[in-house]
Structure formats: structure tokens, C-alpha cells
Amino acid sequence: MNLGLPEHISYSQVKMFLDCPEKYRLLYIEQIERKESEALVFGKAYHQALEVALNSKMRGEEITSAALGQAAEYAWGEVMDEAECALSIEDEDEAVDNLRELVTLYWNTYSRSILPTAVEWRFSIPIPGVDVPFVGVIDLVDNGFLVDHKTANKSWYQGRADSDMQATAYTYAYWAMRGEFPLGFRFDIAVKGKTPKVMQLDTARTKNQVLWFERLLPKFWRAVKAGIFVPNPTGFLCNKRYCDGWDRCMG
Fold first, then answer.
1. Are residues 183 and 91 part of one domain?
2. Are 159 and 117 a contacting pair, CB within 8 Å?
């Protein structure tokens, strides 16, 4: 059943449409049920715990390692309560330990150099040729740099940061809202594994790249309104494990 067009567009919508228009249709138009994965739950909890710590720093308050651990545990519990994620007790204990370790490691490594001016900065921007606003949340504005927190199983490399469209989308949003470019964009990445680590990758976008993204949005919206949803079976995420719509499409 077609439930109508989305009330807003976002970077995640555009990316999903480019990955597979049919998956976009199933998730955003038909609104089929989505299953939460352990990785998604972990990422949400990591973001929530860091939000607590960053807001404390922005208020000029110190936060202890014990308080960081408690924030991580609380965030995990909140996210799990909202998720339908089948984890065994053993898996969950290990995940919480890993979450607590990564949050603490990130904070001990980078907190002294971070100067937060905004945390979870929400934007809503009207786009010419689009009937609904472009919305999103920038995790952190750090002394003029836009920052997005990521959790990953493997280390990132510089080329991935330089080509990631999210940096382009959020640089565009900042420019549209503020009338100026940020100093740059940074991915702060927490890498899970036997030896957890954190890393930072700086990147930047040119005005031409930002204007390209602005032109992309109405093209994306026209395709959505026209009902052009072609499946993409060549994408690496086109399998039963990673696509909630696989049974409806390829199955």
C-alpha cells in the first residue's frame, strides 16, 4: 500500500535512493517494518553517550570516567528498549563493555582539544523545486568544524572521508543556514574489535561540490514524485542480511 510521499527529505533518504530506488520505495513510501541490527543499536547508543559528555563540556562541567560509563550503559538500555534486536545475554554484555570502552577512549583521547559550540544541531532547509524541507542533525560543531561520529568494524582511510556524500550534504546545510562555509568537516570514528581504537579524519568540500548537491536534491525529488523506483541488484547491500525489503523484492 502506498502511504504517500515523505514529509521531509534527508541525506539518508538520498543515499538510500542512490543505492537502490526500490529499497527507498519500500522503506520510505510503503514504510515496511525495519529490523534493528546490533551495529545500528551500538551506533545509536554511542551517539547518545557522547551527546551527554559533549553537552557537559559545553556547559563547562567536568565528566568523570565513571559518569561516562554510566552514560554508555544508560544509552544502551534506552536504545535496546526501542529496538527489536535479538541479542543473547552474552552478546549484550560484550557489546556494553565495548561501548563503554570506546566512549571512554574517545573522551580521554580527544576531549581536551574539542571546543563544542553546538551538539546535535538540527537543521531544516527549504529547497527550490522540492515540496518538503531538507532536514538532518549534525552531531557536533567543534570550533567551526562540522563533526560526524561513526562506529565501524574497520579503520577508515582518507579517500573514504574525501568521497563521503554526507560531508557534502552537511556542509551544504551549514552554508544554507549560516551563509558561510564551515572551516572543514571531520569524521570521528570509533573502531570496534579486539583492540578498540578511535581516529579522526579531516576533509573539506568546495563550493562546486556543495552546489552539485543542491542540484541533486530536486532531481531526486522529481524521481520520487514520478514513482521511478528501479531495483539495483548489483549493489553490495542487495542481500537478505542487509536489506529489510529483500523478501518483497528479490525474494
1. no
2. no
Q: Into how many domains does the chain fold?
A: 2
Q: What is the pLDDT of residue 35?
A: 78
pLDDT in tens, 76-111: 999 888 876 655 555 788 889 999 999 999 999 999
Q: Looking at the DSSP assignment, which residues form a beta bridge with residue 187?
A: 148, 201
Q: Is the overall model pTM greater than 0.90, yes or no?
A: yes
Grid coordinates in use for 17? Answer: 535512493
DSSP string, 33-75: --PPPHHHHHHHHHHHHHHHHHHHHHTT----HHHHHHHHHHH
CA distances from 201 to 48, 122, 148 (A): 21, 23, 10
Radius of gyration from C-alpha coordinates of the chain = 19
Cα separations (Å) of 179 from 39, 172, 223? 36, 10, 29
